[in-house]
């Protein structure tokens, strides 16, 4: 989800950001500005209890309808770059990220929606990251991350440039914003241009080239992912074989991706082949991110057929992190 680029003045971003919040409030493309007038619906969420695991982070988005996700759990990324970071989020993206309810809000269904909006020729969307950046598996243990996600089912011809993602960055990136890919990145779910394919990738080491073949990363090549329905997207850091007294080493540790409970991709320390790089990937803390980008080096720019609104949004039922009990 991230790639190095040139720098952009952060203060300029904030001026644009404030302007767009005003513009979004005046042109909502049909989104209700008073969602609390609607009755709350109750949805039963499966899978929050994991046998043998205890939740160390869990957000089921049960706040007041129409409000933002909890500031105790989430930080907002605003504008078009981190302070002092690469311009256009390092990916030549088109959107400006805001914290406006037109772009992100809790719904009547106890879910969170992130919705790209087009107003007066300018795209806005939302990107959030966990306050916590210490999600890591200890030696001899595991870490499991999971979210239940639904992607918008507008026709692919209407989703050119739409790029939803659920992912993570290494904790050393926070406050630095220039040490990618060395800080490491886990991409749990990425999908582009309305396609029915989930891409899972790691980024690490140096760029270009390096142990993770940057800028491409090491990826799954994609697995089928139907739109308009919820799916569980899981990720397991497995260091269980390297506990005290074990003869196993970092090369035996693995990163594992799951879709609806089925393992779809694995990367091992041996495959990465560099211990320092693997330490950043599999041992160090990470923070989680959710966003819907518009445009970028991978999907390409939106075009005249690209639509905004809920049919190109990402809806999240829950996000959780578990450790063995």
From TrEMBL:
<feature type="domain" description="GH16">
    <location>
        <begin position="59"/>
        <end position="325"/>
    </location>
</feature>
<dbReference type="InterPro" id="IPR000757">
    <property type="entry name" value="Beta-glucanase-like"/>
</dbReference>
<protein>
    <submittedName>
        <fullName>Glycoside hydrolase family 16 protein</fullName>
    </submittedName>
</protein>
<dbReference type="GO" id="GO:0004553">
    <property type="term" value="F:hydrolase activity, hydrolyzing O-glycosyl compounds"/>
</dbReference>
<dbReference type="GO" id="GO:0005975">
    <property type="term" value="P:carbohydrate metabolic process"/>
</dbReference>
<dbReference type="InterPro" id="IPR013320">
    <property type="entry name" value="ConA-like_dom_sf"/>
</dbReference>
<dbReference type="InterPro" id="IPR050546">
    <property type="entry name" value="Glycosyl_Hydrlase_16"/>
</dbReference>
<keyword id="KW-0378">Hydrolase</keyword>
């Amino acid at each position: 989800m991230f790639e190095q680029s040139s720098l952009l003045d952060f203060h300029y971003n904030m001026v644009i950001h404030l302007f767009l919040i005003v513009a979004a409030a005046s042109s909502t493309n049909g989104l209700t500005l008073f969602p609390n007038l609607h009755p709350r619906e109750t949805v039963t969420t499966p899978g929050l209890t994991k046998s043998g695991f205890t939740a160390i982070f869990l957000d089921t988005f049960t706040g007041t309808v129409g409000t933002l996700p909890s500031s105790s759990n989430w930080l907002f990324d605003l504008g078009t770059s981190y302070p002092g970071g690469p311009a256009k989020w390092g990916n030549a993206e088109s959107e400006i990220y805001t914290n406006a309810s037109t772009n992100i809000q809790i719904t009547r269904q106890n879910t969170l929606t992130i919705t790209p909006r087009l107003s007066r020729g300018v795209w806005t969307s939302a990107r959030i990251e966990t306050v916590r950046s210490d999600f890591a598996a200890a030696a001899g243990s595991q870490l499991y991350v999971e979210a239940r996600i639904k992607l918008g089912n507008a026709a692919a011809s209407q989703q050119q440039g739409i790029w939803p993602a659920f992912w993570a960055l290494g904790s050393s990136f926070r406050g630095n914003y220039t040490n990618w890919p060395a800080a490491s990145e886990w991409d749990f779910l990425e999908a582009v241009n309305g396609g029915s394919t989930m891409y899972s990738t790691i980024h690490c080491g140096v760029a270009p080239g390096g142990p993770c073949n940057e800028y491409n990363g090491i990826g799954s090549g994609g697995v089928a992912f139907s739109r308009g329905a919820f799916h569980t997207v899981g990720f397991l850091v497995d260091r269980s074989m390297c506990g005290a007294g074990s003869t196993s080493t970092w090369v035996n540790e693995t990163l594992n991706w799951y879709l609806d409970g089925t393992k779809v991709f694995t990367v091992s320390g041996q495959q990465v082949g560099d211990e320092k790089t693997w330490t950043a990937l599999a041992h160090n803390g990470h923070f989680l991110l959710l966003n819907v980008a518009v445009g970028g080096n991978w999907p390409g720019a939106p075009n005249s057929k690209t639509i905004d609104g809920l049919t190109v949004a990402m809806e999240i039922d829950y996000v959780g992190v578990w450790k063995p009990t």
